[in-house]
């Protein structure tokens, strides 16, 4: 069934792409009177034709795949939770408390790694160990003076004695059943890793509020698409579950800005599945300032290049993993055409030159609304998903988020090409 749905969604999207190319011929011909033909084709393909193919294939696949089957309860076996922190005194206690409060019958060992903090992070971990620790909830403080999240994670990995473990960021809080749900998924399917359903925590600024909808709709849609084929490309460090032996087999985390991306690609290269469990919900703090968001998204863009460098798409043993990894490279092209085509076209439209953006652009809205509505309905059907909606956040997401995302991603690509060094905390 999986193969047929994949093939059908691809063939249908290609058919739509072919029709779109035919319909776009007059558009290209008209614009080429004023602009070079090669540039016009480059932009039209990037802002209209290729996005139509990508969105169509994802929409059809998500539509045809049913909701994941109900899972049996997780076996109450011992499990470890890794929380690495550098200068997280304001949030780490709450993160630990959310793990301690998990409705899970098995024992949990929480390995907290202080990665050279200069604030009261260590004191907050010690406070949590004193106030929250109990026989079935062990809280251990570890130290990793060598800067870098990968080093801190590898330090914690050396102390893991359980079959599976979770990673949780120091600014992430888990819903009460999140651990049991994600553990049940990895136990049932034998995957190497499972990504949780991350949502944006409550925010006070417009920058933070617009990210509510990025996590709720955009990120969730992509993960749901990829998990249908056992090839979720990012088991994010903020909340994911892993098989301990598989992570050790690939050597743990590699230092860099995209250590979770590289690890996921390497686990996929073992021929193992990487999944996504939408019913395992966590709320993570998001950047509140525009500069912080820019650094984060530039880091994510760099991380994609690190993953491609670690494992080439054609070296993935799974057709689906190789396809999605190769497809990721098209994001660079889409960002380039969006910034140098669509944004410029929007400005030109104000002067009456509707070469790339005009009234016809509105015809894309029904498809975008339908796709977003289907993802929203899916998310709202999950009992653990609770969203603090914001009219301001939604407006900013619709009007500003994509320009910000594309501009910051281009900065990240440039940093990757120049091999500029970025510290772990620069993205927060």
Task: Describe it.
This protein is α/β, with parallel strands linked by helices and 428 residues long. The chain folds into 2 domains: 1-66, no CATH class; 71-428, Spore Coat Polysaccharide Biosynthesis Protein SpsA, Chain A (Alpha-Beta Complex), CATH 3.90.550.10. It has helices at residues 2-31, 37-64, 92-100, 121-132, 149-157, 178-189, 206-227, 244-249, 259-269, 290-310, 319-328, 330-349, 365-380, 391-418, and strands spanning 79-85, 108-114, 137-143, 164-168, 172-174, 193-200, 239-243, 274-284. β2 (108-114), α4 and β3 (137-143) form a beta-alpha-beta unit. α1 (2-31) runs antiparallel to α2 (37-64), α2 (37-64) packs across α12 (330-349) and α7 (206-227) crosses α13 (365-380).
Concise account of the structure shown:
With 428 residues, the protein is α/β, with parallel strands linked by helices. The chain is 55% helix and 12% strand. It has two domains: 1-66, no CATH class; 71-428, Spore Coat Polysaccharide Biosynthesis Protein SpsA, Chain A.
**Strand segment count:** 8
* Assembly of the depicted chains: single chain
Overall mean pLDDT score? Answer: 93
Largest sheet: 8 strands, mixed
Report the span from N to C terminus: 42 Å
Please give the share of residues in helix.
Answer: 40-55%
The proportion of residues in beta strands is: 5-15%
- The helix/strand order is HHEHEHEHEEHEHEHHEHHHHH
- How are the strands ordered across the major sheet? 3-2-1-4-7-6-8-5
CATH architecture of the largest domain: Alpha-Beta Complex
CATH level 1 name of the largest domain: Alpha Beta
Number of domains: 2
Query: Which outline best applies?
Result: globular
DSSP helical segment count: 14
The CATH homology group name of the largest domain: Spore Coat Polysaccharide Biosynthesis Protein SpsA, Chain A
**CATH-defined fold name of the largest domain:** Spore Coat Polysaccharide Biosynthesis Protein SpsA, Chain A
């Amino acid at each position: 069934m999986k193969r047929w749905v994949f093939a059908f969604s691809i063939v249908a999207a290609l058919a739509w792409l072919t029709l779109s190319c035919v319909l776009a011929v007059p558009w290209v011909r008209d614009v080429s009177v004023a602009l070079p033909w090669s540039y016009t084709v480059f932009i039209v393909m990037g802002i209209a034709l290729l996005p139509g193919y990508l969105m169509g294939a994802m929409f059809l696949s998500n539509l045809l795949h049913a909701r994941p089957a109900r899972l049996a309860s997780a076996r109450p076996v011992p499990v470890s939770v890794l929380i690495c922190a550098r200068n997280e005194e304001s949030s780490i206690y709450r993160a630990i408390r959310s793990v301690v409060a998990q409705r899970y019958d098995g024992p949990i060992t929480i390995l907290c790694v202080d990665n050279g903090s200069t604030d009261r992070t260590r004191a907050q971990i010690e406070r949590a160990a004193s106030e929250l620790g109990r026989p079935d909830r062990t809280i251990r403080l570890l130290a990793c003076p060598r800067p870098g999240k990968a080093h801190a994670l590898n330090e914690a990995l050396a102390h893991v004695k359980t079959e599976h473990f979770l990673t949780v960021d120091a600014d992430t809080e888990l819903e009460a059943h999140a651990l049991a749900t994600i553990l049940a998924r990895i136990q049932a399917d034998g995957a190497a890793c499972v990504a949780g359903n991350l949502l944006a925590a409550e925010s006070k600024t417009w920058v933070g509020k617009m990210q509510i909808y990025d996590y709720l709709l955009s990120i969730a849609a992509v993960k749901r698409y990829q998990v249908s084929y056992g090839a979720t490309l990012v088991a994010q460090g903020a909340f994911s579950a892993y098989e301990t032996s598989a992570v050790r087999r690939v050597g743990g985390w590699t230092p860099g800005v995209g250590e979770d991306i590289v690890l996921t690609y390497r686990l996929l290269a073992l021929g193992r599945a990487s999944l996504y469990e939408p019913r395992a919900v966590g709320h993570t703090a998001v950047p509140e300032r525009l500069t912080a968001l820019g650094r984060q998204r530039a880091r994510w863009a760099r991380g994609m290049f690190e993953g491609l460098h670690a494992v080439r798409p054609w070296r993935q043993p799974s057709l689906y993993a190789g396809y999605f990894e190769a497809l990721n490279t098209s994001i660079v092209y889409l960002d380039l055409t969006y910034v140098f085509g669509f944004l410029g076209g929007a400005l030109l439209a104000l002067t009456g030159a509707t070469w790339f953006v005009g009234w016809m652009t509105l015809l894309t809205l029904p498809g975008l609304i339908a796709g977003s509505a289907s993802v929203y309905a899916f998310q709202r059907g999950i009992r653990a998903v609770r969203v603090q909606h914001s009219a301001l956040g939604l407006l900013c997401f619709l009007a500003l988020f994509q320009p910000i995302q594309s501009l910051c991603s281009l900065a990240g690509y440039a940093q990757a090409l120049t091999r500029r060094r970025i510290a772990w905390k620069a993205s927060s």
